[in-house]
Design brief:
The complex is a heterodimer of chains A (about 375) and B (about 180).
Chain A lengths: L1 E5 L9 H15 L3 E6 L11 E3 L4 E5 L2 E5 L2 H15 L3 E5 L6 H8 E2 L2 E5 L7 H5 L1 H8 L4 E4 L2 H11 L4 E2 L6 H5 L11 E5 L9 H14 L4 E5 L4 H5 L10 E5 L3 H10 L2 E4 L9 H8 L4 E4 L2 H6 L7 E3 L4 H12 L2 H14 L5 H16 L6 E2 L5 H9 L1
Parallel strand pairs in A: 1-2, 1-6, 2-3, 6-8, 8-9, 9-10, 11-12, 11-14, 12-13, 14-15, 15-16
Antiparallel strand pairs in A: 4-5, 7-17
Chain B lengths: L1 H56 L5 H16 L5 H15 L3 H9 L3 H33 L2 H5 L29
Helix pairs in contact in B: 1-2, 1-5, 2-3, 4-5
Classes of the chains: A alpha/beta (about 375), B mainly alpha (about 180).
Chain lengths: ~375, ~180
């Protein structure tokens, strides 16, 4: 099958959607499909052979922050050329509502279009105003995928219609086979995520830490992620700061080894999550998971059966659960076992098969993707005079 | 004076005409999408019924289960259009009754050729809800547009029948579809 995938965000900036598209494309290529990914990228960025650059993304203020987007005449022309040269059987657009490549492709293409909705942002004011334009472009999507039941609900509320739920994929064996590192073992708690992004929840964990250290003084907290380390531990009493080790940005290999090594993985995120891929990665590596009870997390953890949940933003509840788990190797073993079994459904072999099933459903009996040749002005006048 | 007025009138008329033509194009595209989605749904339903019938006649299952499945699959394939949703729902219920236990699925997998049959059935029961969701999503979009004043007043939908959603019970058997949500 000839598949075209559209990535809305810069290929050179690391992010969940980009990683998902990279893994999906590589999985499909391994299965023998022809895949081309259209993504914004700087001209100097080295790209894998399957990625086509749609030019540089421009930073613009959008929806309360600065987003890097692609739009305008040049980008639209590149999209059209990519569609024309690709002659795809199906195109798969990610995040079609962001005013970037996804929306441009929706607008410029016709034929079988699949779209994945990753985030579950409340509808922005711009989107309400642009609803008519957006609706006309979104109507072309033949199949919608939401990454979680939570994302699907938001989608249905804001745009109407329906979507199938296909979770994000993880290479489970990559994490399951990683070698633990001895210096990261022995009474360790793991945290992975941006340090300076409060929604990732490190402050909550820092508030819980004194109680955890009081009950189990030998505990160490290993933090992997970008951000200001001094500021992160500022709220801790001085003598406790040594119990927190910062590893900085880690490679994929080190991330897997870290997750294999820790006694407990804590995800104290306070919001803004529509899936929670890190929990799936932790479970793949066999780490017992303790996470805040966000909708998306509860679903990934099978409502608490595959990992423990604590009340969101409640540092006391987090501390209580962490102390209990660290002192109960049997319960941790049980969580490891359940997590490893539960996580198989997120493996690329399963997720990839589901996505291919969607492609096959929409291409059944449909013509291939083509550039949407707009009716010429003369034809329109012809119609207008009727 | 009158010339300017005429020019303005023409401009407005042309603008209205362009808008109507654009809306008609949208509607046309939506109808095409519904047709394609309906064809895909039919194909998936037929596939599910065929695999079920094959399993029922293969002698893998006990005679009682075989008859239940054969009956349901046969009814689904032969049912007239106005009874289709009920017949397909009954096939779903029959499949759930027979393949409710993972032991039954395991038994099918163990016999020669059973592995393929089981995966084919699992794929079929997984794809029916998918195809149905895509179809009903297209129907919803078309209905939303057709209810629009412009479309009604100018009869842009022509003689195309008002699109109907396909409602049925498509819950797959637990033992065959071990996935979250769907």
């Amino acid at each position: 099958m000839k598949i075209g995938i559209v990535c809305p965000y810069s290929w050179d900036v690391p992010g969940g959607v980009q990683f998902h598209i990279r893994d999906l494309a590589e999985h499909l290529i391994r299965l023998g499909h022809e895949v081309s990914v259209l993504a914004p990228a700087d001209d100097e960025t080295p790209l894998p052979p399957y990625v086509v650059s749609a030019g540089r993304a421009v930073p613009v203020p959008y929806n309360g922050s600065v987003a890097r987007l692609n739009f305008g005449f040049l980008s639209a022309a590149r999209v059209r050329r990519w569609l024309h040269e690709g002659t795809f059987d199906v195109i798969h657009i990610h995040e079609p509502t962001s005013p970037s490549l996804g929306l441009l492709t929706c607008w410029a293409a016709q034929g079988p279009i699949v779209a994945t909705f990753h985030t579950s942002n409340p509808r922005s004011r711009a989107m309400i105003a642009a609803y008519a334009i957006l609706q006309a472009a979104l109507e072309k999507i033949s199949a919608r995928i939401a990454v979680s039941e939570y994302a699907r609900r938001t989608l249905v509320e804001h745009l109407g219609g329906d979507a199938v739920v296909i979770p994000n994929g993880v290479d489970v064996d990559f994490f399951a086979r990683a070698e633990p590192r001895p210096e990261w073992q022995g009474g360790t708690i793991g945290f992975i995520g941006r340090i300076d992004e409060p929604r990732k929840g490190l402050p909550v964990l820092m508030r819980a830490l004194p109680a955890i250290l009081a009950a189990r003084p030998e505990t160490r907290l290993l933090v992997a992620g970008r951000g200001d380390e001094e500021e992160a531990v500022a709220s801790l009493p001085k003598e406790m700061r040594a119990r927190v080790e910062f590893l900085g940005m880690v490679s994929d290999e080190d991330k897997a080894r870290l997750l294999r090594s820790v006694d407990l993985y804590v995800a104290p995120n306070t919001g803004g999550e529509s899936f929670g891929i890190i929990l799936v990665e932790a479970m793949s590596a066999g780490a017992p998971v303790l996470a805040s009870d966000l909708d998306a997390f509860a679903q990934v953890l099978d409502q608490g059966a595959a990992g423990e949940l604590f009340a969101n933003e409640n540092a006391d509840a987090l501390a209580e659960a962490a102390i209990r788990l660290l002192g109960d190797p049997e319960r941790r073993g049980e969580l490891r076992e359940r997590g490893s079994a539960h996580v198989r459904r997120f493996d690329w072999s399963t997720v990839g098969a589901d996505i291919l099933a969607v492609y096959e459903t929409v291409t059944d009996g449909a013509a291939s993707v083509a550039a949407d040749e707009r009716t010429g002005l003369r034809a329109r006048f012809g119609l207008a005079r009727e | 004076m009158t010339v300017t007025l005429i020019i303005w009138a023409v401009v407005v008329l042309v603008a209205i005409g362009l808008y109507l033509s654009w809306t008609a194009g949208r509607l046309d595209r939506l109808h095409t999408r519904i047709d394609a989605a309906r064809a895909a749904l039919d194909a998936q339903l037929l596939r599910r019924a065929s695999v079920t019938q094959e399993l029922a006649t293969s002698g893998v299952l006990d005679p009682a289960a075989s008859i239940v499945l054969y009956e349901a699959a046969h009814a689904a394939r032969q049912s007239p259009e106005d009874h289709r949703e009920v017949a397909e729902s009954e096939l779903s219920a029959a499949l759930r009754a027979v393949f409710g236990e993972s032991a039954q699925v395991e038994a099918v997998r163990e016999i020669p050729g059973g592995q393929e049959a089981a995966s084919e059935l699992a794929a079929a029961v997984r794809r029916v809800p998918m195809a149905r969701r895509f179809h009903n999503d297209a129907v919803r979009a078309a209905r939303a547009l057709r209810r629009h004043r412009t479309v009604r007043w100018f009869r842009l939908a022509g003689h195309a029948p008002f699109p109907l959603a396909f409602e049925m019970d498509d819950e797959p058997p637990v033992a065959l579809a071990d996935r979250p949500g769907s």
